[in-house]
CCA tRNA nucleotidyltransferase
Amino acid sequence: MLAGAAVTLGRLSDVLVPLGELFAAQGHELYLVGGSVRDAVLGRLGTDLDFTTDARPEAVQRILRGWADHLWDTGGLAFGTVSASKADQQIEITTFRADNYDRVSRNPEVTFGDTLADDLVRRDFTVNAMAVRIGAEGALEFVDPLDGMRSLLAGVLDTPAAPEDSFNDDPLRMLRAARFVSQLGFDVAPRVRAAITSMAEQIDRITAERVRVELDKLIAGAHPIDGINVMCETGLADRVLPEVPAMKLEIDEHHQHKDVYWHSLTVLEQAIDQEDGDPDLVLRWAALLHDVGKPDTKRNEPGGGVSFHHHEVVGAKMVRRRLRALKFPKQFTEEVARLVFLHLRFHGYGKGQWTDSAVRRYVTDADDLLPRLHKLVRADCTTRNKRRAAALRATYDELEDRIARLREQEDLAKVRPDLDGNAIMELLGVPPGPAVGKAWNYLKELRLDRGPLTRDEAEAALLEWWNARK
């Protein structure tokens, strides 16, 4: 694997060679470090390169000035980090660190170290504690004092020191472990899993914003189900995303129903299979959370049945509450909640009994989320009954065909009343106010029910409605 990493880094010689020579000429050491080394070994190195050095930040700035295409300070200088870009590579160079944590917040007292060993031992996991010395004339030297390569080959996440000490210093590392499980497909070492389980409540020290970033990276990973399971099995999810483990409903012999938790993970997996390119976070979050309303709406029915009436309504409210608590952007929150609210509507379609009016409302309510809603509804079919699954797919195919046919006849993307506000005020002889809004809503409902109207038809219908109100 080291040979593969050498080949990968060799492709970056235009950046690494001159950079190593610049630092060597000033008498300083320079190492590629952390995730950059890990990803180079795994053959997945991107365009972000992380380095560490014995040079202080001001010296790093002097060395880079004139060589880097761009050089900037995004607030990292106080933490010893200088950011730059060269060609298509984003570069961060951080002075050796030997931080101390107050173990109340996660804020370190930044102190610069003097050796690479001190810097590596403070890192989160051994797979992120490997380094490659960038010497003069392109010389590369692999440095692995903490056996990170052994952990990498085994696919195991372990901490450089005792995990309890590492997580006390920075509890976010517990959530980061679940994130790396999702991104890398690794497992966590038994002692790490035990430490997370016993210390899960310490994640409460971390701000919602930092938690949200880790959760997004986890959901966007190649193996999000594994990462979610780690969170749920260790108790982390109870602290940061309690609605997910709450879906593990007890199943008894008299009231059989699907395990909602595993059903939701299956829906997430099937939604991912429908993605066209980069991870779609709105779709993934909606797939994971689409049934969070079921625990609160579960009812055992006579004869052994189970019902979850209006769980999509309850679920949408729960999603809004949780995503707001995690400080997600407002638009993102509303899009996920709207998909959760709409995901069940298709099941009222039956065998195609919807009127054109109902189809228009389906499209209008989904608006620009319609392509994601299509994917979510299809992913929500997890029945093992092949005949039923095929029937559901065929029925949804037929609904999509109806939508396409209506789109050919009407502009479904812009379903609006056939009269605007000015025309309404002129026709009814009313000033701006609530009456205009009510009239506008009436015309929109009429448009959804009957399709496009001529101006004369819209005016006649509005006057009839207005006179009836009087």
